[in-house]
Amino acid sequence: MSQQPTDWLGDTPAERISKLLARLDTKLAASLSPGDEAFSLLSEARAVLDGMDGYMEQHSTPYPPILDEMMRAIDTTEWAAVGSEITLAPNMCAGGYEAGVLCMMAKMCGARRILEIGMFAGTTTVALALVPEVEQVVSLEYEPFLRDFAKPFFERAGVEDKIDVRVGDARETLKVLHDEGLGFDMVFIDADKGGYPTYFKSILDFGLLAPKGIIVLDNTLYKGTPYAPHEVFDDGVAGISEVNRLARTDDRVDVVILPIRDGITIARRR
Ligand SMILES: C[S@@+](CC[C@H](N)C(=O)[O-])C[C@H]1O[C@@H](n2cnc3c(N)ncnc32)[C@H](O)[C@@H]1O
């Protein structure tokens, strides 16, 4: 079932390039002879790019099987019928490979308490909760339907006691977490892109991040649009460009952007 607009750029810079190369292939076919060297060069470039994600996934530790169940449920849900104020779509799910990357980060920084901003169907939430050393995942989500959608999967994975879903606007919930005096070793920001600068600042200003803790921000390359703009993709890019600038200039953190999927930033508190 496709629930994406037809002019969709792809979910990552690599998918965007792949689509561009496919279009270039079609254009060349109309003007060059089939034996032209341009076709073999293009075909090699496409093979390198299109094979990369699958190869990386096959050679990484398999992600928990419950994620496949959840992703099947995501793909067969009629999201438009949910009637959410937020436009929900299957490609909001970061997928199994990225869930594995997050779990590796949690293990590497010894995270016990994790805050997630933007849960969607809960695949990243459940994957992080399944890390044995993780004691609690607090996940902030605007849409109440998603809490009910995810609950049976959390129960089936046996981690419902580790997960605390807070429904509401994350801008407000972050203030509540501050009032409750909570602190986290790892924060994963993956909600509305326009909210990223506020989320990033609030976490540091409210003291929600433990010393040496990490903030992980998803989609910080945003299909390449911060540096290679595209007319169909201005939604959210301002928030991403702003948070990338903020993180780089905030002397409370060291920052690196990794070209994983749609770009993942790690900001580690000094
Ligand atoms: C990209 S999805 C999260 C994906 C999830 N982390 C995963 O990988 O499966 C973004 C989620 O953020 C939620 N969201 C958007 N704006 C929000 C807000 N202001 N407060 C809380 N959640 C919000 C959306 O409803 C959506 O479920």
Automatic annotation (TrEMBL):
GO terms (BP aspect): methylation
A Pfam family recorded for this sequence: Methyltransf_3
GO molecular function, one term: O-methyltransferase activity
Superkingdom of the organism of origin: Eukaryota
Gene3D superfamilies xref list: Vaccinia Virus protein VP39 (3.40.50.150)
Keywords (A to Z) from UniProt: Methyltransferase, S-adenosyl-L-methionine, Transferase
UniProt KW Transferase keyword: yes
InterPro entries: Cation-dep_OMT (IPR050362), SAM-dependent_MTases_sf (IPR029063), SAM_O-MeTrfase (IPR002935)
Family from the record: Belongs to the class I-like SAM-binding methyltransferase superfamily. Cation-dependent O-methyltransferase family.
Identification of the protein by name: Caffeoyl-CoA O-methyltransferase
Species per Swiss-Prot/TrEMBL record: Auricularia subglabra (strain TFB-10046 / SS5)
